[in-house]
Amino acid sequence: MQVSGSRGFVNNVSIMNDMDEEDFMGPSVRCVMFALENEIYGIQVSKIREVLRVGQIRSVPGANRQVLGVINVRGVIVTVVDTRIMFDMMPKEIDDLSRIIIVELDDERTVGMLVDFVMEVKDIPEKKFEALSSTKDNASRHIQGIAHYQDSVIILVDVDTIFANHE
Predict the structure, then answer these.
(1) Mind listing the pLDDT tens digit for each residue in 80-110?
(2) Degrees (nearest 5) of the Cα angle 118, 79, 40?
(3) Which residues on adjacent β-strands are paired with residue 80?
(4) Between β-strands 76-82 and 7-10, what pairing exists: parallel, antiparallel or unpaired?
(5) 16 vs 14: CA distance, rounded Å
(6) Domain ranges in the chain?
(7) pTM for this one?
(8) CA separation for the pair 71, 77 (Å, rounded)
(9) Distance between CA 123 and CA 28 in Å, rounded?
(10) Quick one: how far is CA 60 from the chain centroid?
(11) How far is 75 from 62, CA to CA, in rounded Å?
(12) What is the distance between the alpha carbons of residues 9 and 46, in angstroms, rounded to a whole number?
């Protein structure tokens, strides 16, 4: 058996690992990958405090339609938003796969984003991301870039712009 780089050769048959050699070169962006509908999204790990199973969410009367309510995370009250509604998708019933991603906006503000399910943490080479041109369209303002990586299209969400006007 001969092993070279990320490729292995067993009995003269080439075995390709999950990543190409070029994927390991250069800086990468570590992302928590999650799904909404049939799309894969990512948020940079540096913005995420933790991922929680969905427990009791207490409603807040008079809150914005996107706000599902608040949760208590070890003594800290965190507002939970429905990411589907923020992205103009139909709401979905919470199920066993649903998760709340706790995002740190700054030292004092955190918010929980309800998503369909969290997939994994993945390092994506920066060179795989394509920046979007800025437009006035709401949906694209919240996207940092799109990556074509390992047979998937990954939409990198910019949480700072999503919650920039929500104080």
Answers:
(1) 999 999 988 999 999 999 999 999 999 889 9
(2) 25
(3) 69, 112
(4) unpaired
(5) 6
(6) 28-163
(7) 0.79
(8) 6
(9) 6
(10) 25
(11) 23
(12) 37
Tell me the one-letter amino acid at 143: I
> pLDDT, tens digit, for every residue of 9-54?
333 333 444 555 555 568 889 999 999 998 999 999 999 999 999 9
Class for the domain spanning 28-163: mainly beta
DSSP string covering the chain: -EEETTEEEETTEEEE-SS-GGGGSS-EEEEEEEEETTEEEEEEGGGEEEEEE----B--TT--TTEEEEEEETTEEEEEEEHHHHTT-------TT-EEEEEE-SSS-EEEEEESEEEEEEEEEGGGEEPPPP-S-HHHHTEEEEEEETTEEEEEE-HHHHTTT--
Side chain identity at 6, as an amino acid letter?
A: S
Q: Return the residue matching tokens 């070279």.
A: 4
